[in-house]
Structures are given as structure tokens and as C-alpha cells.
Amino acid sequence: MKRTATAVWSGDLKTGNGAISMQSGVIKDSPYTFKARFEDESGKSATNPEELIAAAHASCFTMQLSHFLAEAGHPATKLTTTAEVEVKPGVGITKSALTLTGKVPGMSAADFTAAAQKAKAGCPVSKALAAIEITLDAKLES
After folding, report:
1. Hey, is 81 helix, strand or coil?
2. With contact defined as beta carbons under 8 Å apart, do 104 and 74 qualify?
3. What is the pLDDT of residues 13-40, one digit of tens each?
4. Hey, which residues does 6 pair with through a beta bridge?
5. Which regions of the chain does DSSP assign to beta strands (E)?
6. Could you state, in order of their start, the residue ranges of all structural domains in the chain?
7. First vs last Cα of the chain: how many Å apart?
8. Is the CATH code 3.30.300.20 the one for domain 49-141?
9. pTM (two decimals)
10. Each residue of 76-109: b (16+ CB within 10 Å) or e?
């Protein structure tokens, strides 16, 4: 299975602009700029590659964890994951920090954490990001 995304850019790095589209059509001609990537701390002016990587990592990890939990006989009521991807200009992407909260009836906190660690190591996006630091903060809600 293959998936595609297309990026179009016009102009130079600092003053140019671009648009990103995805095969699914969920994102179509979404703008991205140097400012959005390196200067706008609010993250509201446009998307950027790191935000897209964060979305991919959070969703992949959460799906992988849901599989492990169901496989262990404890399907989740709800899993919420935030991925915060860090980029340092001149260095590159250095970290993805996963923050997870889950409602999983009948599962101990220790078993939940173990399953989350297994998902962190096993999800395909984590494997693709093996060159950077990946952290996980997992919390089981009652």
C-alpha cells in the first residue's frame, strides 16, 4: 500500500510560500511558509512538516496501542495522544514527545504503561523516526 502527498513551493525560502495536498483530500492546498515553520510559535498561521509528522506519529502510535490493548483483552474506551515534534533550525528534527491519556476498563496502570511502551517501539512511524529521541508520558484514567 502506498500513500501520497504533494507539496508545491514558489519563491525563496524566507519569503516564498507553498501548499500541501494529500491523496485523501482531507488536506487540500493547505498553506505552509517559513514563518509558520520557524517563527510562529502559535502554530496558527499555516501548517509545517513537523506538525504533519506529529499528526502521523500520534495517530500511528494510538492505533498500534489500541490493537495491543484489545489483543490483551482490554479494549480502550478512549485513547488521546498528543505528539510534540521539536525542530531546531540548522540541526533538524530532534524529538517527538508523546503524551497519552487512556480509559481502559479493567487494566492496571503498570500493564497500560507496558502496552504503551510496546506501541511506542512498534508503530511504523516510531520506527521511521528512530534517528530522533522519542519519549512517552502515559497516564491511565479511572
Report:
1. strand
2. yes
3. 999 999 999 999 999 999 999 998 888 8
4. 21
5. 5-10, 17-22, 30-33, 78-88, 92-103, 133-141
6. 5-38, 49-141
7. 38
8. yes
9. 0.93
10. beebebebebebeeeeebeebbbebebebeebee
